[in-house]
Amino acid sequence: MRKGKPGGSIAIQLEDVSKIFGEYRAVRNLSLEVNRGEIIGFLGLNGAGKTTTIKMLLSLLKPSSGSIYMLGSKVDAGNYKLWDKVGYLEEATFYPELTVMENLDIARRMQLISDRKSIDRVIQKLDLDAHKNKKAKKLSLGNKQRLGLAKAMIHNPEILILDEPINGLDPASVVEIREMLLDLSRNFGVTIFISSHLLEELAKLVDRIGIMHEGQLVQDIKMDQLEQSLQKSLVLDGRNKGAITRILTEHGYNYAETTDGRLALTEGCAIAQPEKLAELLVRSNQPPTHLSVVTEDLEGYFLRTIRTSRRMH
Ligand SMILES: Nc1ncnc2c1ncn2[C@@H]1O[C@H](COP(=O)(O)OP(=O)(O)OP(=O)(O)O)[C@@H](O)[C@H]1O
């Protein structure tokens, strides 16, 4: 596999990475490339291996096997130079009695940045100007998260790694954070690796989604492809379901029962020509009381992906 070169287009590269705790394989043979400026969402249920992967990216954990490169440079505990280029936010922490400026000044000094202008820069970038003299404890939830991001970005990193940054935020703050991350990626070329279990939210932000399940990457899909991968089904209902299912079987249609007791057909011919099925049922004296083509939602796609991967492994 080609390595991401220092000036190349690949920002993050994992090559066959596994992490084993005792007997337990928390991450299994994970290979992934993230391009510069791309926003990738890393999605999975609790325990899927997201945080373990993030900790390996940050060299807080050493992979049991495989290699990780960021900006063309191998990630390991001794590679300090890399941390000038990577920002990380898990949970927004700050000194509540200090102002936004004072909090950022502490972050600046901890990063050993001598240039005090770095504070003004990050305040501009994250639109915190109106709040810079407020005590951190007085900020709204969204602005607290902004301050957390500002701290993670004080050194102007090229890669931003965020572990569940929108957890627990109110809807307005979620929108704010989303717009800000989009701005960082589109206008400043920052590569963003963001983990979450909220697919609906991720979908509005990311270019690509990687779905982790039981330590494995079971799906890696671009958002524009995702749209086409959403399953369509023809959902129908009628007064005598027993009679309808018999007719369907006689005519070679496969069906499944939906959670609300209706019948769902996923074959292309049924979806393309629902009128044929309607005609058939009317002719058979079982007119449908409901007939509609439904597109699966993202949550449904996520759960189906996980279920399919369970059957395969
Ligand atoms: N230090 C450790 N020792 C043993 N097992 C661990 C350790 N760290 C994580 N695990 C296990 O590895 C699995 C993956 O955990 P991880 O925290 O990466 O999941 P996650 O996808 O981030 O989930 P969550 O959303 O709950 O944080 C879990 O079953 C967890 O119990």
UniProtKB/TrEMBL annotation:
It comes from the Bacteria. PROSITE patterns: ABC_TRANSPORTER_1, ABC_TRANSPORTER_2. InterPro entries: AAA+_ATPase, ABC_transporter-like_ATP-bd, ABC_transporter-like_CS, P-loop_NTPase. SMART domains: AAA (SM00382). Keywords: ATP-binding, Nucleotide-binding, Transport. The keyword ATP-binding applies. One of its GO terms (molecular function) is ATP hydrolysis activity. It holds the Pfam family ABC_tran. Residues 12-239 form the ABC transporter domain. Belongs to the ABC transporter superfamily. This is ABC transporter ATP-binding protein. It comes from Paenibacillus hemerocallicola.
